[in-house]
């Protein structure tokens, strides 16, 4: 009778472990999906910000170009075109960021860095651990460690 009960308990334990593993996997998949969705929303906000900024900067550049051109013609000083050069670079950057392939080139470069220069990505003192976070928490709040509660 004891062997039969032991086998049933082992089977139940195994089923419970499989269930817990399945739940942990589902929870992690949900977490990954949520984090990816948040990343996508942040990227969309960044691109939207670039497009909105481009509207204002494009208007400013247009007015500056008209003003510099009128001033250069009226005063016969071609040096008044000089501000258009750096402003043109900023405008080109913003257009590329808002509508061009800037994001794709940036992603490719990030992938290259992760492959070829992974040592540059290391955090000082390594990744945070439970112990380091707990130590900082205790130091900041003057609380005893969680294990003592």
TrEMBL record:
Highest taxon of source: Eukaryota
GO cellular component: plasma membrane
GO process terms (BP): positive regulation of plasminogen activation
Signal peptide (residue range): none
Keywords: Membrane, Transmembrane, Transmembrane helix
Residues passing through the membrane, by range: 53-73, 79-99
One Pfam family, short name: DUF2368
Protein name per UniProt: Plasminogen receptor (KT)
